UniProtKB/TrEMBL annotation:
Residue span, AAA domain: 31-158
Native source organism of the sequence: Bifidobacterium samirii
Listed PANTHER family: ATPASE (PTHR33295:SF20)
Protein name per the record: ATPase AAA
Family annotation (Pfam families): AAA_14, DUF4143
Domain of life: Bacteria
Residue ranges annotated for the DUF4143 domain, each copy included: 207-347
Amino acid sequence: MSNEPQQWEEPVIERPQYMRWLERWKDRDVIKVVTGLRRCGKSRMLDMFRTRLLEQGVDERHIVAINFESLDEEYPLEAKPLYDHIVARLAPGRNYVFLDEIQHVADFERAVDGLYVRDDVDLYITGSNADMLSGELATRLTGRYVELRMLPLSFREYRSARPADESADRSFERYLTYGGLPYAAVLDDEQDIADYLGGVFNTILVKDVARRHPKIDMTAFNEVAAFLADNVGNVTSATGIAGAMQQSRRGISPNTVRDYIAAMLENYLLFRADRYDIKGKAYLRTLEKYYLGDPGFRFWFLGKSGGDIGHRIENVVYLELLRRHRTVRIGKVDSTEIDFYASDADGDHYYQVSMSVLDERTLERELRPLHRIDDNHPKTLLTMDRIGNGNHAGILQRNLVDWLLD
């Protein structure tokens, strides 16, 4: 038996939403910044885009691609030497430059800025850290970049990677449990999936979290992450998490918990959904909720235990709404809660999520907050029910799986 480590090669899965974005911004005078969770498909997406460029007639000599985590070739890891290295490889005319995981380059913002101002470069960069756009890069390049935030596979994309004879409901059961990282979508053995997800999480922990936070207590960090994975969709505070962990005989302060949550947020392991007062048109600073960047991390931390399936479904809906609407928050209407309030250029959208509303009292409870919203924006109730779907006085009830496949 070979002792070589298993290579996790991402499969080729069509990501039409992201491909359209890349084609829309091609040759436009802005830097294309692609961010997202490790292994969510950033590198593969840009590889597919480079193939598209070749199909459109771009000469391969006009494409420069560097992956700073690849061991196939050594590249300068400081700004000026990197800039000189790339310029030396440019061909006469338009060049497409791709810099993958650029955060490994010291003062990379200077190299990016220098390449951007050249008339012969169309620049694309990727990174796995959300803070990449909140520091020097954003300061230097305000108004000169656009961001594509990539997420793991949508359920529609996930279905395309599964066997054709697998039912949509069976695929969704897998998706809900194992998540949407591209490689996990093509694995069938449960232990293989667990090993893969553990490898992704530990890579983030070692390459990203520990590098930026060298004094971090890895054991405590894992315990906080596991707690959050088991409480997606619940109102969660740092003080509450610290108290729960003290009960399990591990002392940890609320400030440390906040630091660990910030580290998970900056590496897309976690997303925070803030609360918004819909009637008062005001953002609220308390009672936020957290959702995993990929539902599969819950399986890695906690195994296949059932947990609250309603909140796990909420996690899937939250990520899907981020794909469709960009901005997603928890809604407050008087003393009631709307699961998700989303807004975009088309206006506001309101969503309730429930496992089932076949019980009349449950249906009434889920519809009540939506009825209290006095506007004509779309209101949707998503459930796993296959019967009872339709219109409830302007509120559209839909099967969740069907909605995900839209």
